């Protein structure tokens, strides 16, 4: 395992060009291009407005001298009827720009709507829709426009429709693809939890965040449209006399190309300059966007295989009456049947904080997301029981297929609060904090604007954000990372939820802010009696904050123990022992080696002691991929205490006391001394 693999997702180096690569070089001077483009387009717009007033009469005035060359009176000569070509070129600016704008508007509106519909439809329609669009894009837009224009009657209306229709597939594909990439971000997950429907999700949360690349396409598309319209007019399919645009003028000029070439110069130069200006705006916007874009973390990739059965830790013998979340034999499966989370069972009582700890990829987040009905597309969950319980109403089934309805969404939104890992991805960057914080209260609790605002201020105050009222008017980027995470906690607390899921809420923060965030979570738990599922790589943090700790390895729970056991270092499973051994402690810490399972995460930010007392242990090797789990214990290849049985026999569950369980052959083999407990046969434990 490399050190990079061990890093949390938001700390891994992003894929992208190295400094000095070709792409980086092309990004230079976005400001200059943008300025040139905007200036050019600005001048053209001014010209379009004023030209008919200034040159309108002169452009229509017939003269005795036809096909005149360039002169002081007629800078660009005259046409076949003696009209001044410079004046006509200036006047044609308005019609040319108007028609191009109209066609671009049609292309973008139709395309974005189509892309949105494709994205919100089910996976099958989406796949077919994208395939059809790919085929349409593979035909040059001008050829498509020519075909459409030829079918319709020649004229500007036909051309605008033809070019608009031909340009729409590009917008549709970009919209659908960008929406898919933004859909995985935390704030979209939150919005889904809040019960926001797909169309509103698209309008409010996705479109504003993909506006930038769409804007770039808009400028580039405008340049192409202008060229295409001029081309169709030039071919006689576009603007018809007595009206004229630059394409029309160019067609007239080309008839006398050999006798009076200057006639073609004016419209040709105008077309090129306008096209270049629009392209510059597009390129400048793209370069500026590239510079500011944060690189996305690499996508997770796994290979198909068959699920591997094993005994389960955490099946508490007695679920308390006040349990808020009860999960029994939870599996999260890929479409091919591979279990990413395999047979996880646990419960969280009212006011209890349960920690889940494990290496990257062990299934912590998927377990949590399944509990909030927020699994990403392509995955589904099954369970013997997965319920959010409420003393006054029926339990909410968290995995039942087809249970999505308004009441389910409302209960999920109100009863579960989520705090994500990356504070910068937790809020929609395009919306002010106020609207985002008050949304759930207004939509699901029908609070008035004033009540929702007061609640938001109260929670922001609780998380110790200064001047909470003015924070509501700020955008997320105006807050520091720690402030954003505190605002996220405030957002999660707004409905006074029964359960908070905190998915590595401190991993992206520096060590002082981490401590503050942990204090706030504890305070919220004490104030409201909120149950909490707290996920972390860091077993020391989990031991400090939580009441009970679940240890996950390769998609399964391998040990359940009390936080006191964690603090005292009383782990039974060799994996938990290794995590503890790899965790620096303020009283005994030494530097952690890079190749350790808990090492880099656990040691981040911890001060090393001047007097190293013990060396932190490393766990060689890496966890298996979900489809490569061995038939026996998944930890066996890395286990320092491995037995022969570990390699090919699934380990049994051993429960030495209520609330304590461990999935390990060592317990049954009597390899430990002085322990008491009940070994369950494998079948009984499942
Ligand atoms: N959308 C997905 N499609 C397919 N596989 C996925 C998906 N999301 C996660 N996985 C896989 O499921 C397994 C568990 O992932 P999960 O994100 O729950 O792990 P984790 O313990 O939370 O890791 P981390 O600490 O890095 O967030 C991993 O092998 C991961 O590659």
From TrEMBL:
Q: Which GO terms describe its cellular component?
A: plasma membrane
- The residue ranges of the ABC transporter domain are 325-579
What membrane topology does the annotation report for this chain? Answer: Multi-pass membrane protein; Peripheral membrane protein
CDD domains xref list: ABC_NikE_OppD_transporters, TM_PBP2
Pfam families xrefs: ABC_tran, BPD_transp_1, oligo_HPY
Region Disordered, residue ranges: 1-26, 589-612
Could you tell me what this protein is called? Dipeptide/oligopeptide/nickel ABC transporter permease/ATP-binding protein
State the family named in the UniProt similarity comment for this chain: Belongs to the ABC transporter superfamily.
Key words, A-Z:
ATP-binding, Cell membrane, Membrane, Nucleotide-binding, Transmembrane, Transmembrane helix, Transport
Subcellular location(s): the record lists: Cell membrane; Membrane
Q: Where is the ABC transmembrane type-1 domain?
A: 93-282
